[in-house]
Every structure is written in C-alpha cells, then in structure tokens.
Amino acid sequence: MIDDWRLMIAEVPEEAAFPLRQSTIINRQSAIIRLSASLIFFAAMAAHAQEPLHTLRGHERWVLSIAISPDNQWLVSGGDDQTLRLWNLKTGGESRTLRRYDSAVTAVAFHADGKRVAAGTYDGKLEICDAQSGKLLREFTGHGDSVTVVRFDPTGKYLASGSADDTLVIWDASDGSSLLTFQQGNEYDVTTAAFSPDGERIVTGDGESELKIWDANSGEEMATLRGHTETVTSVAFSPSGKQIVSASWDDTLRLWNADTGDAVQTLRGHTADITSVLFTSDGLRIVSAGEDKEVRLWDARTAKPLAILTGHNHSVLCLALSPDGRLLASGSKEVIRVWKLK
What is the separation of C-alpha 75 from the centre of its chain, rounded to a whole number of angstroms? Predict the structure, then answer.
C-alpha cells in the first residue's frame, strides 16, 4: 500500500456537511430563523441530487488518477493495484487492462489525438503507450522518485511530469528528450501541475503549501502563490486562462488571478482534505472532491456552492471531465463513478 502524499487515506467519520451553528444566546425567534434558513439551503442542495450514469468496477484497490479522451468516449485510469485500465464511457463497461506495472499507477493523461496515453508510477517510471492496445511507445528516464502528475500541453508536442524528487520536467513527447527542468526549490514534492489553455504557462503545487507559475518556454519563474497552509493537491487553469483554482489538505479551495498571482477567493465547505479540483469546460463551475467522500460543484463567479454529488463510500481521490463538458468522473476505492452534468 502506498504511503506518500497522495495516499494518506484515512476514513472520514460521517459528519453533516453544513452543521447548524449554535449561538451562545438563543431565543425562540432567532432559532426558528436559523433553522428555516438551513432547511432552505438543504432543500436547494438536495434538488441537485442524482444517481451516477455509470459505476465502473474493476480496480482491486484505490483509483489514483483518471482522464477522459478528447472524443469523450474513453476513460483511462491508474490504480494502486498497479494497473492501467481503459473504459468505454458509452457502454459503461471495462474495455481492457492496458498495462501492468511493478508499482501503483499514480498519474495518467490522454494525448490531444486521443490515440496515446501517458502514465507515471510510484517507482518513478514514466511512459507513453497506445491508448487501445497498451503497446509501449516511448519511455522517459530522469525522475529520481515517484511521478505524481503528468500533463500534455494543448498541442500534444510536450509532456510535463511532476515528481516527489522536487522537479517538474517538460519532455519532447515524440522522442523522449528532456527540454526543461523546473526546480520547486523548497525540497518538497511537486504534487500537481497544469498547463494554461494556450500552453505558454504552467502552474505547479507542492507538498509544503505553495504554488508557482512558470513560463513554459523559458522555465522562468513568474510568480509564487501563497495562502494555503497545507499540501497543495490539485490545480487547474480556467478555460480563459485568467484564473487558477487550487485544492489543499487545509480543506479549502482557492481562486487566484493567473496574471498577477493575487488571491481572489477562498471556497470552504469540504470537511476533510481536498484531493482534486477542476473547472468545467465553460468556465462557469468548479468541481472538487475530497476525503469527505463528496464531489462538490461551485459557481466559479460567486464561489457559492451549487450541488453535492454523494454516493461514494470512501475518499474521492481524482476527477476528470469530458471535453464536451457533459460527463464528470470521480475515482475512489475500487470504483469510478460517471456523472452526467446538467
């Protein structure tokens, strides 16, 4: 079983997501007002309750990373059971086990052409394989520790990989050569990363609490974002490239101005470590997941909660959104749930 930053997996006690606050001075009228407001809020949230479109079963342990193909038809998943698997989103059935490894598959990503998949593992292996046959196409060597994240740039020419060795490396996806190495600089893991929509910038998060924005062409550090108090677990650019959202073990999401690095908003609601976050394809909503077993939707403009998707029995460790914005996938222990976004 893995024991690194991604998998401090402790069962979260069942708690109400929004407990009623008790006042030290209570009178009947104020209590009724507070209760009514809470009931209205719960009713509004319950109106968004829905059953998953598919529940994908096949992994024998935790699902650590997932990605959806550009044509919205396939989902690839990496697991603690040391397998890379491919799923058919149209039928909701498992297509095949693409590859087996000697350690957990900690990071996956689809290439822009949908024909190739990148996978990183706990023992530091990084490779690209055929998305349908699983045939090995390219190996990348250089990381000295676990691969924590893999991302193709929008063109598919470059592959970025973050590692527990405190580096993010940008590779030539065609020949496997190392082009740039970003040193996070604080001796903590690079835990997450994301390219900007135009591919000109890349943002990284680390095991301390910081995010950094880099020039993806020169490797120059452009800004350091501070505000989280625990490990940054996930990060994403908005489709416009103007905002960044980050998730952390401090149980918060934070919105940042991607140009200035200034903090814009803090989103609170999760009751345990947040493990994954992304923007919807239209940029209007934010989706997050955490060890409280919940998937939450937020209004990206107001930072207000919109809905809670429940049904997982264990921590939710990863999310993926279909490029057309219609499907959301969430990975947990042994299962992946696929939701239809409204």
Answer: 14
Distance CA 19, CA 27 (A): 19
Element (H, E) at 32: helix 28-46
Strand partners, 266: 254
Token duo for residue 171: 């590779």
Residue 84, SS3? strand
Residues 31-64 have pLDDT tens digits of 333 333 333 344 344 434 578 999 999 999 999 9
How far apart are alpha carbons 287 and 220 in whole angstroms?
Answer: 30
Lookup result for tokens 């998953």: 52
Locate the domains of the chain by residue range.
52-340
pLDDT of residue 342: 78
DSSP label at residue 191: E
Q: Which residue has the tokens 């690209």?
A: 128
Q: What is the pLDDT of residue 36?
A: 36
User: Which pLDDT score, from 0 to 100, does residue 149 have?
Assistant: 98
Give me the long-range contacts of 16-23 (CB less than 8 A, separation at least 24). Answer: 17/269, 17/271, 17/292, 17/294, 17/308, 18/42, 18/269
Inter-residue contact 59 to 75 (CB < 8 Å): no
**Which residues, other chains included, contact 254 with Cβ-Cβ below 8 Å and sequence gap of 6+?**
227, 228, 245, 246, 248, 263, 264, 265, 266, 267
Mean pLDDT by 10 residues, the chain (342 residues): 38 33 32 35 46 93 98 97 96 88 98 98 98 97 96 98 96 97 83 98 96 96 96 98 98 97 96 98 97 98 95 97 96 96 84
pLDDT value of residue 141: 95
Report domain 52-340's class: mainly beta
DSSP one-letter code for 13: P
pLDDT reported for residue 186: 66
Cα 9 from Cα 151, distance rounded (Å): 24
Burial of 342 (0-12, 13-18, 19+ CB in 10 A): exposed
Pairing of strands 327-331, 333-340: antiparallel
Q: How far is CA 185 from the centre of its chain?
A: 23
| β-bridge pairing 333-340 and 285-290 | unpaired
